[in-house]
Amino acid sequence: MAHPLLVTGAGGVVGQSLVECFGPGRVIGLVRPAGNRPDGAAELIAGDVTRPRLGLDVPAYAALAGRIGGVLHSAALTSFTRAAADIHDVNATGTAHALRLAEDAGVPFHLISTIYVRRRDGSHEDGRARPYRESKRAAEDTVRAARVPWSILRMSLVIGDSATGSTPRFQGVYAAMKSLITGGAPVVPVAAGSYVDFLPRDHVARSVRALVDSGALGEHWITAGERALTIEEFVERCLGYARRQGRTVPRPRLVDSEMVHRLIIPAFGDSIGADLRKRLELFTDILGPLATDRTLPRLPDDLPGLGAPPDLGACLDTSLEFFGTRARLAATGTPA
C-alpha cells in the first residue's frame, strides 16, 4: 500500500473536504490541538504549523517523516480581520515548516493556495485582504525554491457541498451572502458585468485529488473559469433565497470597488454608520479581488478522475439553503 499523504489543516473547510475525498487510509491529518477532528483520516496528529517540526518532538517528527508519501499543505489562516503578523505566521512561516518536513522525508509537496494572489487590474490593494494576499504570495515563493517536487494549487472561493450545501464553517463569501439576504448591502462593490468565481468544496477536493494522483507538478488553477456566474446572477440567487424566506430586501446597486474606497467612503465620512462601513469594506475585500472577466485559468475537464463542475447556480442555491438553516440572520429586511 502506498504511503499516506499528510494533510495539514485537516480540520478546516478545505482540509476536511480533502480527507473525505481521498478516503480512509490515504491520509494522515494534522489538526490543531483544540481544532476540529474530521472523520475519514487513517490517523490524526495534533500539531502546530507555526512551530518548527510542526510542534512535534524529535522522535515523533522523525517517525512521521518516515511514514508519509507526500505533504498536502492546506493549513491556512483565511480571516481578513486577524493581525497581519498572525496571518503571515500561519500562512508563510507555516508553509516553510511544512515544506521542511517534505524535504526531510524526500517526498512531494503540494501547497493549497488561492486566486487572491492574482490581483485584479484596478482593484483596491490596500484593503484588509492585503495581508492575506501577501502571506500566500510569500508561501508560493517559498515553495518554488523547494528541494523536492512541488505543486501550487490556487483555488477559488469555496462554498458548500454541491449536493447538500454542507460546510464545516461559514467563511469568506458567506459574509457577502448574509449581507444580501438580510438587506445589509445597499451597495455591492463589484462592477456590473463582472463574474464571481467560486466552486463547491467537493469539486475542489476532487480537483486536488485528480492533480495529486496524476503526479501533476508546477502551478495549477482550480477555478470556475468561463463557467463563473455574473455578479448579477450571484445577487439574484441571494435575493431569491431571501424572498423564499418571506423577506423583502432592496436590490443593491453595483459599483466598482475603487469607487467605494476612493469616492463613497471618503465623501460620506462619518455619515456612514460604523456597521455599514464595516460591511462595505469587508464586501469589497472578499468579492473585489474575485470579480473576474472569466479569464482565470482552470483545469481541463478531461483530467482523469475529475470531469466538469456541477451547475454553479444550483450549487449556490443549495449552499444558501444550508446556510439559512444554521446561521443567525438578523431581520434587516422588511417581512413580506
From TrEMBL:
Domain Thioester reductase (TE), first and last residues per copy: 43-207
PANTHER family: BIFUNCTIONAL POLYMYXIN RESISTANCE PROTEIN ARNA
Protein name: Epimerase
Organism for this UniProt entry: Streptomyces anulatus
Top-level taxonomy: Bacteria, Bacillati, Actinomycetota, Actinomycetes, Kitasatosporales
Gene: tlsK
